[in-house]
Design a protein that fits this description.
transmembrane helix, about 200 residues, membrane
Length: about 200
Amino acid sequence: MKNEARTRAARPRFTDRFGLFSECLLTGVWIALAALPLLTFPAALAAGTRHLRRHLAGERGGFRAFATDARAAARGGWLVGASVGAAGALLLTDLAAVRAGLPGGPLVGTVGILAFIGLLVAVVRAAARWEPGDTWRSLLADAGRCTVRDPAGSLLLVCGMAVVVLSGALVLPLAVPVLGALAAAAAAVEARRPTGDRYA
């Protein structure tokens, strides 16, 4: 009887965990579709993390709600995406200087890589806490502070981004659903923050 009770208790937990896993994979596909213009990646990630938060809270939502959030987040989010693109282009210029053997090139290249990673982490953090009506400027200012003050959370997001990159390098289509795991990691990092710590 005890074994049967344990089995019954374990089934809902397994179902909930598998349901969250499948929701993450589906959300990754949605994020990839919404991020196809590239400039909309921050908005797509914001909509994806908000969808996962709704799912965890037991609220109803689907692709229509995701698309509505993505459109709302894109109003200012495309500027963030453009900034990331400009920073990436600058990083490529720095790396070209390193390959050319210019004096101080390795130092400049290292600083550029670290700065770009820090920018990506801040953008992911900002997207993870986006809500309708929020301004990306305020979100990024807060996320920049948290990137420095919460190194453990930042490292978790760096690892999540590395998994996406490595998955894409091995099998490109695999990076699409893995984006959902990055969104879940971002939502988890945001959930670690104390209540009321927003825009501190």
